[in-house]
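Exercise: predict the fold of this chain.
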Amino acid sequence: MPTVGIKKEAICKALDRNYTDEEFDELCFEYGLELDEVTSDYEAIVKEQGEEKAKGADTSVIYKLDIPANRYDLLCLEGISRGLNVFLSRMKPPVYEALEPSTGCRQRLVVDPSTECIRPYAVAAVLRNITFTPERYASFIELQDKLHQNLCRQRTLVAIGTHDLDTIQGPFVYKALPPQDIKFKPLNKEKEYTAVELMELYSDSPVYPVIYDAKGVVLSMPPIINGDHSKITLNTRNVFIEMTATDMTKARIALDILVTMFSEHCDAPFKIEKAEVVSPDGLQIYPILPYREEKVYAPALNHKVGISESHDKIANSLSRMCFTR
């Protein structure tokens, strides 16, 4: 069960109420979450390294929540606050839409057959006109880390790459090359490395897949490291998201979670720009963002859960958990 830390100040602001620790604990319980710990960076450092090391550390109160293993939408502040706001009837569940780009020309990722024996699948999308703040940026990076640790199984099933679209040019090509043919500047490094040298730095994978833009700029070497050239900054306005995978189902879920969580910060909230992936199997448009319709019957549901509620009460309860009707 993953644990997510959110600042008390941030969640109270998002919920438009100053909760006491006890009140927030009760709200989490009602929603189905567990408030595991109330702490701060300062307290954590004191506990592990002593007071001397903690001088100058952030004393902001942090709520650490235990998140159910299948609730990837609750791995960031955006998802937690959105879920709680709907639960509290402060907002309706958002409707997520995948739209064609205003230019009429989708970003394209071409999957070369050479990737078949390494990481054969890829998905892509664009977050257009997003606004980052330091807090949003940190949350964006942390969500990717949480997805990598959990759903993506330490990048073995899915590797996420996010790039400043204004620094690169499509169409993009995903291929597998001999390590001596790959050379680029990895994220937060000062010089270029060959893939052989990179494996000495990042020895968690023996494979050498690589993604290039139309000008030969390397975006990433999944699942090892992203490139420095296209890294996201606070000034980034347009984000190109690519994910390579050995499991297509997990890739689609990871893409849906990332774009639905952070499309909140786009000029057109909850609208995601489509991208196309051309693989040896054909063309596919992402994100798919599938909705499905389910019918539930009050007597059967009451019997299974062990309650006795009316159709309207059940429908209202489901609506508070982000099910639309």
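Check your answer against the key: Residues 97-286 form a domain with the Phenylalanyl-tRNA Synthetase; Chain B, domain 3 fold (CATH 3.50.40.10).
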